[in-house]
Amino acid sequence: MNEDIRIHSWPCSYYLDTSKQWVSGRLSLTPVAIKFTADKTGELLVNFHLSSISEIKKESSNLIFSSLTILEKNTKHWFSSLQPSRNVVFNILEHFWREQLLSSEGAGAEAAALQSTKGKELTGLLTGSQKRLEDTAKVLHYQGEQFDNIMRGLNKIEGDMDVADRLLTELESPSWWPFSNKLWKAPLETKPKETATVSDSKNQEGIIIRIPVIITHRTDSNVKPGKLTLFASGLEISDCNSQVIHRFESKDVDDIRVHTPYEISVRQRFIGKPDTSYRLLSAKMPEAIPILEMQFSKKIQFLEDALGFVGARKSPQVDLGTSIWQAATGLLGGVVQPSSPVGGREGMDDDQVQLQKQEKISQEEAKELKQILKKLKGLALETEAELERQDEALDSITTSVDRATLNIDKQNRRIKKLT
């Protein structure tokens, strides 16, 4: 992720301690840092990492009202005249600061990551791919349940149409026909059995991902912390106490706009009344966007500031399958059957020998990679089988709908003759 992306910026004033005066400018937040730029000179007066912050507080005094203070190491920075309000800026800054402290991408983790081996990098890559494939399988499983519900509904419609057909036959039969009153009574006994099989998939569906978010409703200036939960059937917005604020079913979502890699808006349109719209900001949003893109591929829109994120995220994954498998099999093969004999190192210098050592992975890492690859292969086969099953279900649904349409037209003509 590009660390120079500007997540948010706010007009405000900064107290410059060297000249003992307030300077007008803009306070900016990036994924890893806070910056302040003066309006008149364009000079960058403040620039420090989020991980170096010790405290963020809302303070005031006799001379300074509605101020926000940030304690960075031993320096206290004062910001005032914050727009749209001090509470909005405080909630957003505190959210990203806390997530930065909890994130594994902190300063200490970054230093440790530089020393990670090739095997650990590959294990992390494959684990991420496995998680993505599992999320895809959950969505496909829910879609399969929806297809099953549609098929059950169509079967019930066909049964009702058979009953209607028998009723019409009775009405069309002459009064002296002896079996006219027995044509349609028997199938009615099976109708209560059909209503007993109601699917309760919503209560059983699992959570794909849940992330902390900063919530803005419609165009309100007030923001509040909460949570975004993604299900296979839709998404749910709740407050910090896990009380549901709003739930969007997949069919209810009209569009999702990705403003930046960290901010999205979800909207449901209505005729004759205001739209239901929520704007969500989160440090963990880059983890949720790929799932939203998979679930709402025709409804999601990436705005200009988010297009760089799409390119950076998709370009390595264009040939993700081949690159993962080639890298994994190549490294595993290097462990099991090293390509160069021990004597081949005589012509190498120390740097080449060290590089060759770094490219090798341990037996434990190789064993873990083999297990992940085995799971990936099983998930891929299950996903492929589910897709084939859904293709067959779609064909059956199309055939049933066409048959039902013909039957309805035929019965309409028969009803017109009777009337």
From TrEMBL:
Its main location: cytoplasm. It comes from the Eukaryota. It comes from Glareola pratincola (Collared pratincole). One of its GO terms (cellular component) is presynapse. Belongs to the SVAP1 family. GO terms for biological process: synaptic vesicle fusion to presynaptic active zone membrane; synaptic vesicle priming. Keywords: Coiled coil, Cytoplasm, Membrane, Repeat. This is Synaptosomal-associated protein 47. One of its GO terms (molecular function) is syntaxin binding.
